[in-house]
Design brief:
mainly alpha; globular
Length: 428
């Protein structure tokens, strides 16, 4: 256990050191804020993973989500019949409907004010401990439950007057966490048909999204520090959202939003996977021409059968896998996952992780750490999504958003890696 803790400390030091290296203003970094953010992460991870009472409480939350997933799958079975249970069509007719149902449920929670109260609670904690502005705290807390395009709606009145540092916090927070609407889909991908596996991975994904919020804030405040002379606005008022005029209207709106999200996810997966297959087919031809495919299969013991994009990404991102505490035998495979998540998206990466887990390519510990490190929207497509989504709410900030986009991607990636480091420290 001590070895894992020391590896985590080393990984955290490397990641924070890199953030300092590319910071806009190293002298303005508020190290008290950074320390507070790390402390919140460590305490939350320890409480949820190691303290039985807290573990039981979060398992109860996951059990509630599993009931929702079961209801969504039964509804998909009613609508699509055998297509919903056929492995050949499982993702389109089983996983994507879960996104629609979770979106509708989230809208309903927002209509009744349940989600606002939970968001306010998390925002209050981060506002008091990290001394952030109210808008930053609200956005970070909202990102735990809703997506990177929906969370800015919570702070829409503040966007025009925000500093660049605050905008960086919002963008990084959106990159480093997941939306409630896709939470169930990830559980379904990793847990498969096993209720025990679904509960286990649901627990880890919930914790990952929770502790990634303070990680995103501390990373953002290192990359783009706030002006120490700026007046802090601690207003935590959540503006009323157009969640619907009544319950049925809220459900309808959430369902419509969920359909758009599910279609978007399905379309992106189709396009990205098509490019992967195209690239792999071309590399297969190259590998055959160079007569190295058999050597690759022998060297990797059949885990990579030929020259492929996954092989390249594995070697390119292997150092990042080592930083988050992955053992030497698994760093190339987890490196592949980190590459797929960053270059493509997390759905592709989680699908690959599910395949690796089923084939027992990597250890259980590496699987869990990877589940934490992949739990975020930090990919190149998200830069465009954020610029388009946030600038539609505050058109005057479009230039700032475009200038901060790539750095927010880096920040979101590092934040999820910090979360992976903590998972490696507490999971033996």
């Amino acid at each position: 256990m001590l070895v894992y803790i020391l590896r985590a400390i080393l990984g955290i030091a490397i990641l924070i050191g890199f953030c300092v290296l590319i910071s806009n203003n190293r002298k303005a970094i508020n190290w008290k804020l950074v320390g507070s953010g790390l402390l919140i992460q460590v305490v939350l991870a320890f409480l949820v993973i190691k303290i039985p009472f807290m573990t039981g409480f979060f398992k109860a939350i996951v059990d509630f989500f599993l009931v929702i997933i079961a209801a969504a799958q039964e509804s998909a079975g009613f609508l699509f019949g055998d297509l919903a249970t056929n492995p050949a069509f499982g993702f389109a007719f089983s996983v994507l409907p879960i996104i629609i149902f979770f979106s509708a449920l989230t809208s309903l929670f927002y209509y009744y004010g349940i989600l606002q109260k939970i968001v306010y609670g998390f925002a209050w904690v981060m506002n008091r401990t990290m001394k952030l502005t109210g808008a930053e705290s609200l956005s970070a807390a909202a990102n735990i439950f809703i997506g990177q395009t929906e969370a800015p709606l919570v702070i829409k009145p503040y966007l025009d007057k925000m500093s660049r540092s605050e905008l960086m916090s919002i963008m990084t927070g959106g990159m480093a966490t997941i939306a409630g609407s896709v939470f169930g889909a990830y559980i379904s991908i990793l847990g498969g048909d096993s209720p025990e596996a679904q509960q286990e991975f649901g627990m880890h994904l919930l914790v990952a999204s929770l502790i990634s919020a303070p990680a995103a804030l501390l990373v953002a405040k290192i990359l783009v520090p706030e002006d120490p002379n700026r007046t802090i606005n601690n207003d935590l008022n959540i503006p009323k959202s157009a969640a619907g005029s009544n319950m049925l209207d809220a459900l309808a709106k959430g369902t419509t939003d969920g359909v758009r999200l599910a279609v978007n996810v399905g379309a992106m997966l189709f396009a990205f996977m098509a490019f992967i297959y195209l690239g792999n087919n071309l590399l297969d031809l190259l590998g055959s021409a160079l007569n190295i495919n058999d050597n690759i299969a022998e060297f990797t013991e059949g885990k990579y059968e030929k020259l492929s994009l996954q092989l390249f990404m594995g070697y390119l991102f292997a150092p990042l896998a080592w930083i988050i505490g992955i053992n030497g035998d698994d760093i190339f495979y987890v490196g592949q996952l980190l590459g797929e998540k960053t270059i493509l998206n997390e759905f592709v990466a989680y699908a690959s992780l599910g395949d690796m887990q089923a084939a027992e390519f990597i250890s259980k510990r590496s699987t869990i750490i990877a589940a934490y490190a992949l739990c975020g929207f930090a990919n190149f497509a998200s830069i465009g999504i954020q610029i388009g989504g946030i600038s539609s709410l505050a058109p005057g900030r479009r230039q700032d958003l475009t200038e901060l986009g790539f750095k927010a991607l880096i920040g979101g990636t590092i934040a999820t890696m910090l979360t992976g480091c903590l998972a490696g420290a507490f999971i033996g």
